[in-house]
Design a protein that fits this description.
heterodimer, A: mainly alpha, two-stranded antiparallel sheet, 12 helices, 69% helix, flat, B: mainly alpha, two-stranded antiparallel ribbon, 2 strands, 74% helix
C-alpha cells in the first residue's frame, strides 16, 4: 500500500515560516461599517421597505377597526331577524339580506361545485398536450380576471331578459360564474398533488380510472378541493356588482306565502351596504356599517377555514 | 377454501361506469369552455344593435344623453384608465416593496435575532415563532384581497374622503394653477377612488411578485453575496432584474383587475360624465357606468350599455391575456435558468 502523500505540491518545506496570502490586506476595510455609503444605503432601503409594508397593512386594520367601532354598536338580535327600515324609521335589521346572500351563494355553489370538480378531474387526468384541457385552463384563467360586473351583465342578458324579472336564480348564476375558476384551478392543483404512487397502486390492482378517481384521488385531495370551494364561496358572498341588476334588492323576505321564492327580487348584504351607504339617513348608514361587519366576518371566517384546510393537505 | 386474489379485472358494469364517468368529466370540461364562449357571444350579440347604430363614434363621443339618444363613452374610458393607472403606480410601489420585505424574510430574521438575544431560538415553542410570524404577515396581506369591494367603498366614503379632503383642498388653494390640482375635492373624486383601488390591487401584485422573487435560483444570491455585494446591491442588481418578468406579469394582471373593479369605484369616483386631468374632480369609469345605469335602464338603452360592457370586456381580456402570457414566459425562463 503506497504511503499517502500529505504534502501539497507547493507546500513549504518543514521548518520554513508559512507565507501569509492575506498579507497586506487591510481588514478594517472589509468590516461592515455604516459610514460607508453602500452599507448605509442598504440599511436605509431595508427600513424604507419595512415602513412601506407596515403602511400597506394600515388600511386592513383601519377597515376592521371602523367595522367593529361603527358596525358593532348596531349589532343586535333585531339586526338578524328584522326587515330593513324605511327612511326615517328607527330600528330594523337586515335578516332578509342575510337569508338572500346565503340562498344565492348556495345556488351558485350548487351550479359551480359539481362543474368545477368534475372538470378538474378531467384536467388532472388529461395529458399536457390535450387541447380540450388547455382550452379549459385558458377559459378558467380568463374567468379569473373577468370583471365581476360583466358576470352580472351576462346573467341579466340570459336570465333577467328571458324570464322577464329580477330573481335570486339570476343572481346565483352570476355568482357561480365568479366561483367557477377558483374551484377548477384549486381542485386541479389539489388532484395533481396526490402522490403518483397512490394512483399507480390503484391502477395496479385493476381499478378503473373512475374507481381510482373516486376511491383514491378525490378523498386524498379533498382538503385542497374544499379550500377552493371555500375561497370561491367567500368571494361570491362579498360580490355586489353581479347582483345589482340580477337579484336587485327587496325589502321583504325571499318567501311567497310559506314557500321559498327564487323568482323574485332578492335582498343581499352586499347590495344593502351599497344602497344604504349613500342614503342621507343616520339609521341607514349605521345599518350599512353593521351589515358590512357581518359580511366581512362571514367572508373572513370562510376564508380562514379554507386556508386552514389547505394547510392540512400540505402537512400530509 | 379458495382465496380471492386482491387484484381482478374490472367487470362489465364497472367498465361501463368508468366510461360514463369519464364522459361526464369531459362533458363538464366542455361546459366550462362553452360557458366562457357563450358569455362573450351573449354580450356581443346583445350589443350588436348599438354597435350597428353608433359604430366607433361611441368610443370617441363625450355626451351621455338618453333623452336625445346620444351616447359616447370617452369620459368613462378616460376615467377608467386614469384611476387604474394611478392605482397601479401606488399599488406597484407598495406591493413590490411588501413582496421584497416578505421574500427577504426580514420579519423572521428580526424575530430570530430577538429570540437569540433572549437565548430562546432553540426553544420548541418560541423557536417556531419566526416562521409563524412570517406566515401571519403573508396571510394578513392576502386578507386585504378578501375584504369585499363594497366594504372598501363604504370605508372610502366615510374614512378616506374626510381624511384626505383638507390636504387636497389646501393643495388646490396653494397650487390650483397646476391642472393636476385644478379643482377642489368636494366629496367623491379620482384621488380617493385611485387610493382605495391601489389598496385592492396590492395583494395581487405582492403575491405574484413574491412568487417571482422567491423562485430566483438561490445560487445567484449566493454568488452576489460571495462577490461582496450588500443586501440591497444584490436585490437591485441581481434579484429584481431576474424576477422582473414575473413582477411585470403580476403588475399587468393587477391592472386588469383595476380596470374591471366596480363597486368601490361606483361609490368613490363621483359618476360625473366629464374629462378632467384634475385629481380631485369627480369622474366615471366603464364598470361604474354599468353598475349605475343598468338597474333602471329602459330596453332601448340596454343595447347601448351592452356595447359599453363589450368595450370593457375587450380591454380587460387583452390586458389579462397579456399578463398571463408574460407570467407563463417568466416561469418558463426561470426553469431554464436553474
Amino acid at each position: 500500500m503506497p504511503e499517502l502523500d500529505t504534502t501539497a505540491p507547493n507546500a513549504p518545506a518543514f521548518g520554513e515560516p508559512e507565507p501569509n496570502p492575506l498579507e497586506g490586506v487591510d481588514f478594517g476595510k472589509l468590516e461592515k461599517s455604516l459610514q460607508r455609503p453602500r452599507t448605509l444605503f442598504s440599511l436605509i432601503m431595508s427600513l424604507v421597505v419595512t415602513g412601506m409594508t407596515v403602511l400597506a397593512l394600515i388600511p386592513l386594520f383601519s377597515v376592521l377597526l371602523m367595522l367593529f367601532w361603527k358596525g358593532g354598536r348596531k349589532l343586535s338580535v333585531a339586526a338578524f331577524t328584522q326587515l330593513p327600515p324605511a327612511p326615517l324609521e328607527q330600528g330594523g335589521g337586515f335578516g332578509n339580506a342575510i337569508a338572500g346572500t346565503l340562498i344565492m351563494v348556495l345556488l351558485a355553489a350548487l351550479l359551480s361545485v359539481p362543474t368545477g370538480i368534475l372538470s378538474a378531474v378531467f384536467l388532472a387526468a388529461a395529458s399536457p398536450e390535450n387541447r380540450l384541457a388547455n382550452a379549459v385552463r385558458f377559459a378558467a384563467k380568463v374567468l379569473t380576471g373577468f370583471p365581476s360586473i360583466l358576470a352580472g351583465v351576462f346573467a341579466y342578458g340570459t336570465v333577467v331578459l328571458i324570464t322577464g324579472g329580477y330573481s335570486a336564480i339570476a343572481g346565483g348564476l352570476a355568482l357561480s360564474i365568479l366561483m367557477l375558476p377558483t374551484i377548477v384551478l384549486t381542485a386541479e392543483d389539489a388532484l395533481r398533488m396526490v402522490p403518483e404512487k397512490m394512483k399507480e397502486a390503484a391502477i395496479g390492482m385493476g381499478a378503473t380510472q373512475t374507481q381510482t378517481a373516486w376511491m383514491v384521488l378525490l378523498p386524498t385531495a379533498l382538503p385542497g378541493i374544499l379550500t377552493g370551494v371555500m375561497l370561491g364561496v367567500a368571494r361570491a358572498a362579498g360580490e355586489t356588482a353581479p347582483l345589482l341588476f340580477t337579484a336587485l334588492f327587496s325589502n321583504y323576505w325571499p318567501m311567497r306565502g310559506a314557500h321559498l321564492a327564487l323568482m323574485q327580487p332578492t335582498a343581499s348584504l352586499a347590495v344593502l351596504i351599497y344602497n344604504f351607504a349613500s342614503m342621507p339617513f343616520e339609521n341607514q348608514v349605521e345599518m350599512a356599517w353593521a351589515a358590512a361587519l357581518v359580511l366581512v366576518l362571514l367572508v373572513l371566517v370562510v376564508n380562514l377555514a379554507g386556508q386552514s384546510l389547505s394547510r392540512r393537505q400540505i402537512q400530509q | 377454501m379458495t382465496t380471492q386474489p386482491i387484484t381482478q379485472p374490472p367487470t362489465r358494469s364497472q367498465r361501463f361506469n368508468d366510461r360514463l364517468f369519464r364522459g361526464l368529466c369531459r362533458g363538464f370540461a366542455w361546459l366550462v369552455v362553452l360557458l366562457v364562449s357563450f358569455i362573450v357571444l351573449r354580450i356581443a350579440v346583445a350589443a350588436a344593435p348599438a354597435v350597428r347604430q353608433y359604430g366607433f363614434g361611441f368610443l370617441s363621443g363625450t355626451t351621455w344623453d338618453p333623452n336625445q339618444s346620444r351616447f359616447g363613452i370617452l369620459p368613462e374610458i378616460w376615467g377608467t384608465l386614469l384611476t387604474s393607472l394611478l392605482a397601479l403606480v401606488l399599488g406597484t410601489l407598495f406591493g413590490v416593496a411588501a413582496a421584497v420585505f416578505l421574500s427577504e424574510a426580514y420579519l423572521s430574521q428580526f424575530a430570530f435575532g430577538a429570540l437569540k438575544g433572549m437565548n430562546l431560538h432553540l426553544h420548541p415553542v418560541f423557536g417556531r415563532l419566526p416562521d409563524q410570524l412570517e406566515n401571519l404577515l403573508k396571510n394578513l396581506i392576502e386578507l386585504l384581497a378578501a375584504i369585499p369591494s363594497v366594504v372598501y367603498g363604504l370605508w372610502g366614503l366615510f374614512v378616506v374622503i374626510p381624511l384626505i379632503r383638507p390636504g387636497c383642498n389646501w393643495l388646490h388653494l396653494k397650487m390650483g394653477w397646476m391642472p393636476l390640482f385644478g379643482t377642489d375635492l368636494s366629496g367623491p373624486g379620482v384621488l380617493p377612488a385611485a387610493l382605495v383601488l391601489s389598496i385592492m390591487i396590492l395583494p395581487t401584485i405582492t403575491a405574484i411578485s413574491r412568487d417571482a422573487l422567491t423562485s430566483v435560483p438561490p445560487r445567484l444570491r449566493m454568488a452576489a453575496y460571495g462577490l461582496g455585494a450588500t443586501r440591497w446591491e444584490t436585490i437591485l442588481a441581481v434579484i429584481l432584474p431576474t424576477a422582473s418578468r414575473g413582477v411585470f406579469g403580476g403588475v399587468v394582471l393587477a391592472f386588469g383587475r383595476a380596470l374591471g373593479e366596480t363597486m368601490a369605484l361606483a361609490m368613490l369616483v363621483g359618476n360625473a360624465n366629464k374629462i378632467s386631468v384634475s385629481l380631485f374632480s369627480p369622474a366615471n369609469t366603464l364598470a361604474a357606468l354599468l353598475a349605475n345605469s343598468f338597474p333602471e335602464a329602459p330596453p332601448k338603452e340596454v343595447a347601448v350599455l351592452m356595447y359599453a360592457a363589450l368595450v370593457l370586456l375587450a380591454i380587460t381580456l387583452v390586458v389579462n391575456m397579456a399578463g398571463s402570457l408574460i407570467l407563463q414566459r417568466a416561469s418558463a425562463g426561470m426553469q431554464g435558468g436553474k
